């Protein structure tokens, strides 16, 4: 079959091994998955209770406008209803953005390494991808500005950045936005927003008033613990939302996903607890790293990029033998490192124990 020219050069997303596959392969009874930055505590118990009451008729299509979820999110964030778009994960919104704004002859600017889906979809749309290496895990914003020209349509700022965990502070972001030409859409991917504790992390929503060319991406997949439901959202100007709505599938977010998400929003106390517990255990893992002279990138997320004196592929394989699934940095564009989701306290004690043996 004849495809678009670009398709044969691309590879399908390679999913990590499932817990059951690893158990079988390595003859293990317990697996701790620390590879995809899901919330290890799961969703709020309140959401689980509510889900038992979900009584909607499954034969019906979902509300394509996600009215109820839209109202709750717009009240929660204090933005207009028509400044929101929902997707099957923020992944789908990344795809919608590329489909809407990118084409042959245009280009898009992003960090490297960063969230791989920006590049993947940009390439499919035929756009030129300009990647600016991060420095010590941080976006090099001046270089990114220099890479922008008349043909640039989107610049991607992943903050905090996956896989490094580093964020862009308020002063840096404001300076970037002021210098960025107005024809360029600035995407702020804030998938880890709920985990951030830094005082100088920008209040990006407040920028929407003065800038029409900003799109903020958030998700229910990470701190809210609902990755399996696939619900993410974007916040922008009415103009950008209108553009995206023209290409959005009519029923792109499931009814039960909408229901889970709107209930999750109600339990902000749970999010606070998750954030605090995460940070406490992160501190323990960081102390371990210092003890073993392992550098790590400063993280405002629920994962840590740990630099190693040897191959991250080898270490992740050794860890797998002991039941810990992590991501080798080599697979994310950083040699000799692993990206580890901050797990539960007991699991991380065992993880550190095993990692220390891998280093011997
Ligand atoms: C996990 C993640 C996403 C995607 O989340 P969805 O599950 O698709 O909402 C987007 N951006 C970054 C940086 C992520 O780490």
From TrEMBL:
EC annotation from Swiss-Prot or TrEMBL: 2.6.1.9
InterPro entries registered for this protein in UniProt? Aminotrans_II_pyridoxalP_BS, Aminotransferase_I/II_large, HisP_aminotrans, HistidinolP_aminotransfase, PyrdxlP-dep_Trfase, PyrdxlP-dep_Trfase_major, PyrdxlP-dep_Trfase_small
Q: Part of which pathway? A: Amino-acid biosynthesis; L-histidine biosynthesis; L-histidine from 5-phospho-alpha-D-ribose 1-diphosphate: step 7/9
Keyword Amino-acid biosynthesis part of the UniProt annotation: yes
The GO terms this record gives for MF are: histidinol-phosphate transaminase activity; pyridoxal phosphate binding
- Modification N6-(pyridoxal phosphate)lysine, positions: 222
* Keywords associated with the record: Amino-acid biosynthesis, Aminotransferase, Histidine biosynthesis, Pyridoxal phosphate, Transferase
GO biological process, any:
L-histidine biosynthetic process
What residues does the Aminotransferase class I/classII large domain cover?
Answer: 30-354
Question: Which reaction(s) are listed as its catalytic activity?
Answer: L-histidinol phosphate + 2-oxoglutarate = 3-(imidazol-4-yl)-2-oxopropyl phosphate + L-glutamate
Subunit: Homodimer.
What the record says about family reads: Belongs to the class-II pyridoxal-phosphate-dependent aminotransferase family. Histidinol-phosphate aminotransferase subfamily.
**How is this protein named in the record?**
Histidinol-phosphate aminotransferase
Q: Which organism is it from?
A: Salinibacillus kushneri
> What is the taxonomic lineage of the source species?
Bacteria, Bacillati, Bacillota, Bacilli, Bacillales
Q: Which gene encodes it?
A: hisC
